[in-house]
Design a protein that fits this description.
This protein has 16 helices and 16 strands. By secondary structure, it is α/β, with parallel strands linked by helices. The protein starts with a helix and ends in a 7-residue tail after the last helix.
């Protein structure tokens, strides 16, 4: 036993004797706290650190790692009593000492996501006794978020007999969070999530697409990969040569041409990279996304349909504040950070020039155009995988100029449904009859809205 631990044990003995005389032993909860710390509650210092609610599993993992390092002197225990969601920890302890409203109880647990298909148990409200890095007794208290009661953040509280001791333990927990970060290497999406109660950050499965599943004009995919995967692969040598790593890539083109599909392909090609996705109303979290990207690099921040927040000022007198938030977020990431901002838009001409043209924000813009004849044939063959295609594709390719990849995909599905309706007991065989019938249906005047929704500019 070290001298610090011996001194702590002696202090606990003295405090227990003094408490017996002063009548402070009336609460088992208070006794559990003060007995370990070796000091009356009035001498206890609390150091607090708050995190976003999606960090709950990270807090639990780092506390577990801390206990593995420094040992568990007092097993996990909880606090029983009403109105716990409205009181801070030291307030509950003070009330327990004076009024007996709170007492020793069981630990509260919750389930929190740690991946697209996995979850773990985490302490929702509980305390555990351990030692500071210097050997002094401390208590770690974990408190999960409870949005329905106004608690939007998770909290770690360290109880000790001095601020220095408590801060030392808290700092070590924070360093362990960096070492054991569960978000690193994940695909994450901001927004309202239904995934196991995680309300602002969702874990998504990483797409796995092969290069032959991305149909683009010659050289386009090579340029995109060189600007993303190439920089990631040669990052150290680029930095050594005085080159920056942060990059901005804009994919633009008509709806349905494959911009999102290309983004999904890149996610699969960067299996160890953290991906943070923002789309729609989730754009308001761009500052948080950039902060996560810096912390979890190498990383990619995906902003889909970025024109929704970066429309050119000439279209009206008002400029959306989110545009400035986005620009500030991109500027705030240092050039040596291995972070990619990957933007997509259907209306590149409407983008704010400060975003599209300013060096250091977007340094490569790549058009994803409507497929040419060779591309349309490649798309039809791609989407025909899994069925038997006997149709002559030449007439269909000639009749579909101006259509998108989405149109080609839906065409094969409709042709497959026609084949199933005609031969429900046989394998799916798409011949000339089914493919021609499906094309006539989609090119009919009554399908104009459908064609528009699929991004097609082809006439009927």
């Amino acid at each position: 036993m070290g001298s610090a631990e011996l001194a702590a044990d002696l202090a606990r003995i003295v405090h227990a004797a003094a408490g017996e005389v002063a009548g402070e032993r009336g609460s088992e909860l208070i006794e559990r706290v003060t007995g370990h710390l070796g000091a009356p509650l009035s001498d206890v210092v609390v150091v607090t650190r708050n995190w976003a609610m999606w960090e709950h599993a990270n807090i639990q993992r780092s506390v577990d790692a801390y206990l593995a390092e420094h040992g568990t002197a007092v097993d996990w225990f909880g606090i029983a009593g009403g109105q716990r969601t409205h009181e801070d920890l030291i307030g509950m302890l003070a009330i327990a000492r004076k009024q007996g409203m709170y007492e020793l109880g069981s630990v509260d647990y919750t389930t929190t996501a740690i991946g697209p298909d996995t979850a773990t148990e985490a302490v929702q409200l509980g305390l555990v006794g351990t030692y500071a890095p210097g050997g002094e007794p401390v208590l770690l208290a974990v408190r999960g978020a409870n949005p329905q009661w106004g608690q939007e953040q998770c909290r770690l509280e360290v109880l000790a007999t001095s601020r220095v001791i408590a801060t030392g333990a808290r700092d070590r927990v924070e360093r362990l969070m960096v070492e054991h970060d569960l978000l690193r290497g994940q695909v994450l999406a901001f927004g309202t999530s239904e995934n196991r109660g995680n309300e602002l950050l969702t874990f998504l499965p990483r797409p796995r697409l092969r290069g032959d599943e991305v149909v683009l004009p010659d050289g386009v995919l090579d340029a995109i990969e060189r600007h993303t995967i190439g920089i990631a692969r040669h990052g150290e040598r680029l930095l050594a040569a005085g080159q920056h790593l942060k990059r901005g890539l804009l994919l633009h083109g008509p709806p349905g041409t494959g911009k999102t599909h290309t983004v999904r392909y890149l996610m699969g090609r960067l299996p160890e990279t953290t991906v943070v996705i923002l789309t729609g109303t989730a754009m308001r979290f761009v500052a948080k996304a950039a902060e996560l990207a810096r912390r979890l690099q190498p990383s990619v921040v995906v902003l889909e349909d970025v024109d929704l927040i970066a429309q050119d000022r000439s279209y009206g007198p008002q400029v959306q504040p989110l545009l400035f938030t986005l620009l500030d977020a991109m500027d705030g990431v240092g050039g040596d950070a291995d972070v990619t901002f990957l933007l997509t838009t259907n209306r590149a001409s409407e983008l704010e020039r400060a975003l599209a043209d300013r060096p250091g924000r977007v340094d490569l813009a790549v058009e994803i155009p409507l497929p040419d004849a060779a591309g349309r044939e490649a798309l039809l063959r791609l989407y025909a995988r899994g069925l038997k295609l006997t149709a002559d594709l030449a007439p269909v390719v000639a009749a579909t100029e101006g259509v998108t990849a989405s149109f080609a995909k839906e065409l094969l599905r409709r042709a497959s449904l026609l084949a199933l309706a005609a031969r429900p007991e046989e394998d799916v065989v798409v011949g000339d009859e089914e493919l021609s019938a499906a094309l006539r249906e989609m090119q009919d005047a009554r399908s104009a809205l459908t064609r528009s929704l699929l991004g097609s500019s082809a006439p009927q």
